[in-house]
Structure formats: structure tokens, C-alpha cells
Amino acid sequence: MKLIFTYILIIASLFLVTEKADISLNTTNNIRFLNKVKEFTAGEKLVLKFSNSENIPTKLYIIHIYGHTLLKPIIKSDVIYFTIPELISNKAGVIRWKLFFGSQSLSGMLKIKPQINTFKMETYLGPPSIVAGGQDFSMLVVIPTDVYDNALADSTVVNMKHQFLANEYNQMAHIKHGISYLNIFSETKTGRMLVSSECLGKNSKEFTIDVLPDIPTDFIIDFERHHEYADGNQITTLKTSILKDKYGNIISD
């Protein structure tokens, strides 16, 4: 029991030492992170600021969507400025940074959000033809992006619209993980379906889905010929009844 108590005291001492070291790390030499805002919108100028009253040489290392970059500082009075290149600040995602000064460092994280407007609609539809009956479907996938080609934020509403014969439909889908989609099912009739989408005032181009008849039901085969005897010139014509599916649609040529 005495040995266990001694072991607990040693572990607690180690935690206290570690905690003091972390506090010292963030306050040594009066270097502090000065940015109050940690979330930015793509396209904004992104500058990280640090206090440095003792003019200690520093380097900023960042990890971003394209890889790793080491930035040089601009020093004005007692403040160090690091400007994030536009190529990086225009892309939505997370930027992790680490400031090195002497043998110590500070670290943190920034978030860049996509713009709240649609510049382009990437739209995919397939298959282009489905079978009547309400069981078969085609999937419409829409990826709205901002001017910097960032997928819009999750939960953004996308209106999925399609028209079939006299019926018009408007259904809402929400972006999740950068994409939105909708399964468009056939009806019992055949024809051409018109499909489009809209997000934040931006419309996609129009697509079409051909709704084809289902497999035919039982039909009758009959024949015609000019006379009953075989003389080597007999011509027999085979004919069927009109082929229809179970919904009454005439089978396509």
C-alpha cells in the first residue's frame, strides 16, 4: 500500500512539472498570438500577428491543404506579421501553424470557411434512361462551389427540380460532405423527364431522363400466308399482338 502511494505521488509530480512547462512555453519572452478571430472566409486576406518585444528571430511553419510551408516574418515595432499566401487562404479547410523562436514554440489552428454564394454548379445525372413502374431511379448529384472552387458549407439547401409530362416537382436536398443528391424514381407512364437544380440563386443546366417501358407481358404470335400448299414460293409472315408492359405502355422499337 505504501509503495502504491509513493507511485501516485511520483506521477502527480510529473503532471505538475509538465503543466508548468506548458505555461512557461506560452509566456516566455513575451511572445503571444494576437489574432482574436480564428475563423475566416475564403478570399479574405489572412495575416497572423504575434507580439515580440525582444525582437527574437522567429519562423512560422504551416500545414495546409496543399502541404507544408515555412513563412518569413515582417516585423513592425514589437509585432511580427506573417501573411498567408492567397493560394492557401483561398481554399476552405484547416490551417495548423507552429511558431518557432529559439528552442521554443507556439502552435494553433485556423479555420477557413467557403464563401456563402454559388459560382458554379457541378451536376451529374445517371443513368440517362430508366424503366417505368416506380422501382427504377436515376440519381442527380449536385456540387455547388464558390468562386475559389470550394464546396459550399454543409446544410446549404439545394433545390432539385424535375418535370414529367404534366407533373412538376421541387424537392429540397442539403449539402453533406460537399455534395447533395436526390434519387428520382420513374412513374408508370413513359416519356422524357426534365431535370435541373438551383442553389443560392444559381441554376444548373437542364438534363433529361428517358423513361422506357418495362418488360412486356404475355403476347400472341400469329402468321399469314397466301395459300396452303408448299410449292417453293410460299411466303409466311409472322406477326404478334401489340406488345405492352403491365402498365399499358407500348414496348419501344
Give a written overview of the molecule.
Helix content is 12%, strand content 45%. It is mostly beta strands and 253 residues long. Strands 10, 12, 13, 15, 16 and 17 form a six-stranded mixed beta sheet that branches. A five-stranded mixed beta sheet has the order 1-8-7-3-4, with no helix packed on it.
Number of helices: 2
What is the molecular shape? rod-shaped
- Low-pLDDT residue spans: 1-28
In percent terms, what proportion of residues is strand? over 45%
Ordered list of secondary-structure elements with their pairings:
Blueprint: H1 2-27, E1 39-41, E2 47-51, E3 58-64, E4 67-71, E5 74-76, E6 79-83, H2 86-89, E7 93-101, E8 104-113, E9 120-126, E10 129-131, E11 137-145, E12 157-164, E13 167-174, E14 180-185, E15 191-199, E16 202-203, E17 207-212, E18 221-225, E19 236-240
Parallel strand pairs: 1-8, 10-17
Antiparallel strand pairs: 2-6, 3-4, 3-7, 5-6, 7-8, 9-11, 11-14, 12-13, 12-15, 15-16, 15-17, 18-19
Provide a quick synopsis of the model:
With 253 residues, the protein is mainly beta. The chain is built from two helices and 19 strands.
Index terms:
single chain, 253 residues, mainly beta, disordered N terminus, five-stranded mixed beta sheet, six-stranded mixed beta sheet
